Every structure is written in C-alpha cells, then in structure tokens.
Amino acid sequence: MSIRVDSLCHVYHSGTPLETQALSGVDLLVERGEWVAVVGQTGSGKSTLAQHLNALLLPSSGWVKVDNIPTTAGAAELREIRRKVGLVFQYPEHQLFAESVREEMAFGPRNWKFPEEEIERSTWKALDLLGLSQDLLDRSPLQLSGGQKRRLCIASVLVSKPDYLVLDEPTAGLDANRRNELLRILKKLVEEGLGVVHVTHDLELALTMADRILVLEKGKAVFCGTPESLLDELLERPVRGLCLPPLLEFVSRLRSYGYSVPYTLDSELLADCLEREIRS
Predict the structure, then answer these.
(1) For residues 161 and 151, what is the distance between their CA atoms, to the nearest angstrom?
(2) How far is it, in rounded angstroms, from Cα 123 to Cα 59?
(3) Do residues 147 and 257 share a domain?
(4) Are 80 and 129 within one domain?
(5) What distances in angstroms separate CA 163 from CA 42, 91, 104, 159, 175, one per listed residue?
(6) Number of domains in the chain
(7) What is the pLDDT of residues 62-97, one digit of tens each?
(8) 211 lies in the same domain as 152
(9) How far is residue 203's CA from residue 44's CA, in Å, rounded to a whole number?
(10) What is the domain-level CATH number for residue 45?
(11) What's the predicted TM-score (pTM) here?
(12) Which residue segment(s) compose the domain that 267 sits in?
C-alpha cells in the first residue's frame, strides 16, 4: 500500500495573467512505514505537493493515487483518501478553528463516524503522545502557545488514525527539546507502520531522519533517493537554496586535504575517525 505520484503538474490561475506553474512532472512513491522528506527553497512547490497528497488540490495533469485510489475519483473515494492521509498545515492558524481543544480533537473522528467512547480514548492518547495536558481540553486553541498549537494540529490529525501523515514544516516554532521529542515520536510512528511525508527547508534534519529525500527546484523533482546518495549529488551538483550542513562542509574540506573520513552528521564518529587518521 502506498501513495503514488506520477507526472504531476499543477497550474495556479490557469488561463489568466496570473497563471503559475507550481509543479511540473513530479514523480514520488511513499510506502507505509517510511519517512520521506521533501526539501527545496521557498517557492519550489513543496506545500503544493503536500496538498495534493490528500486531494486538497487536484492535478492539472498527471495523477496521485492513495492505496490505488485516484484523487480525481468521486466523493466517496475522496472521503476515504482524506481519512487515510492526514495533513498538518505549515501554519496552525490555517488549521485550528474549533472553540475548544476538545472539539478540535473530536471534529475529525466524528466526521469519520467514530464511536464517542473511541473518540475520547483516542483524544487522551494523542494528547499524551504529543505532550499536551488534558487540562487544556476546555481551553480555546487560540489561547495556546505557538508550540502547543503546532502539537495540537498534529494530535488532532493523529486522533483519526491515518495511514499516512503529511507534515508541512512541523518543527517550526518548537524549542530544541520539543523538536527532538516530536522527531522521536514521528520515528516511532514510522516504525509502527505509519507513512510520513515531511516537508522541510532543513536539509540537515532531512538527512538525519528520512529514509528517502525528494528535492524540488522550481516545481521540478531534481533528485529522489537516499540521504547518502543526496550527499554525493550535492557535492557534485549543488542545488539552489540547499546548503550542506556546516559539519559536512568541514568533512568535505578535510577530504580535500587528503583525510579519509566519512561523510557523516555524527560529530563523535567524525572525531573518532579523524583521531585515527592523525595517529596513523
């Protein structure tokens, strides 16, 4: 079971003076139990692609299929796609709308006809998973801090038990501890079989966490592969808007001086390898 994207094109304001080609010929495969990062500079088409994965946007040409269901299918099929694929927006204010945290959490599962008892259990579980207190249930989402709002957005999607989770810049606005905790949670969900599509501008984060990385440039897919192969690609052909993490820049310079050290984001491993090189 998977999300498949084939030759996807998207044009905004087609046939008008404002016509803009946002995506052009993009291919992508996302399996359950896999973490796929989508990276690229602002305006590269990342958010547009994310909104295609749960049929919030429909293709101008090409197609998207979720577990073999095309996003261009009828209303009943679209409903199933949106249950399967949870989408977390980049800005919480674009997602949160209910009068209370309790109602925000219940909206999705009620829409899918979950029993009330299950909604209550799933709400507590999702809030606990994201580190949100049940004391917040009767508060307005607008009264929460920026980090709490972002975590509530994720919890309110997870409560509907999707098969895939698409997140647009989910770590923005989180402090280092909350960021690392969220990444740990997402990694655990992937290990349990959830498919994750992580839209981010943070190349180092993508290289560290993802199984595969899609690079978009001006609406086109210029690379899709493992983090290791992306490193090789970026060293050969830099992509506009993507800069190697400082540690990898340092490794590249060491290698140019003749040191046989690996390309790694693990500073302790690099230090050990460099120490052995110097001693030898």
Answers:
(1) 16
(2) 34
(3) no
(4) yes
(5) 28, 22, 20, 12, 28
(6) 2
(7) 999 999 999 999 999 999 999 999 999 988 999 999
(8) yes
(9) 14
(10) 3.40.50.300
(11) 0.88
(12) 245-280
